[in-house]
Amino acid sequence: MSENLVHDERITAIGLFAEAFAGLNARFSAQLAEHQLATVEFEVLLRLARSPRGQLRMTDLSAQTSLTTSGITRVVDRLDRDGLVRREACPTDRRSSYAVITPAGQGRLAEVLPGHLALIEEWFTGRLPADQLIAVLDGLRVVRDAVRPYAAAGATAAAR
Predict the structure, then answer these.
(1) Please, what is the average pLDDT of the chain?
(2) Which domain holds residue 44?
(3) What whole-number distance in Å separates Cα of residue 138 and Cα of residue 131?
């Protein structure tokens, strides 16, 4: 093994990214647990709330998260059971259905978001000067779009 390879800056970059993500995720998970939400449930609620009419096709929701279609079905089923999301049949395609955030789901987000945003500010955005933050966000978008091209909007081609 070459000594130069283990000290390559690319290894350092991905290691720092992974360590930062793990640390942030641990802080976010603890805060979300105080509101009886798992991280993935929060992500689903947030993506629905940020979508037109508070709804996404299940396949698009799967594409936007790191979950398979069966995984997203289980999460939506739990959120539906808790009254935070409901399912609606697609009027034009019987094979598709929508996940729709409910008023109770919007209320849960309203409870969670102030503390969540405070954590983001304390441990991520507030630690970077504005010009660095813009550069980091731009860089993250470039990488995200390359490795998960359907994550931003969802798409039927996500399974390809």
Answers:
(1) 91
(2) 3-159
(3) 11
